[in-house]
Amino acid sequence: MPEIIVTTREGEQQAVVFSPGASLMQSICEGGLDELLALCGGVCSCATCHVHVDEEFFDRLEPVSEDEDGLLSGSGHRRKNSRLSCQVRMTDDLDGMRVTIAPED
Question: CATH number for the 3-101 domain, one of 3.90.550.10, 3.10.20.30, 2.20.25.90, 3.40.640.10?
Fold first, then answer.
């Protein structure tokens, strides 16, 4: 099974298995990490699933939508590799990707 490596806000790393087609947010939450709030449930209306994606994999992701960009703009922790995990669809090409859960705003 493909997996990603998630780094928590405290710096702990955990491998998480994912299913292709699922969102990154679903994968992290189903992997047992409750640190990712995901308050809107994945409909791109909050930024509580903000993550920083390893730059090696960032260009493999679909481009940031206008809605996602607007929500990320409100974060004091936005970086050039920031994404809302609810907007990232997992593919086999992302096996081994590393993400870090962004600090809460």
Answer: 3.10.20.30
Instruction: Report if pTM > 0.70.
Output: yes
Residue with tokens 């809302």: 84
The 10 Å CB-count burial string (b at 16+, else e) for 72-102 is beebeebeebbbbbbbbebeeebeebebbbb
pLDDT, tens only, 27-36 = 999 999 999 9
Sheet of 13-17, strand order: 13-17, 3-7, 98-101, 50-53, 82-84
Residues in a beta bridge with 101: 51
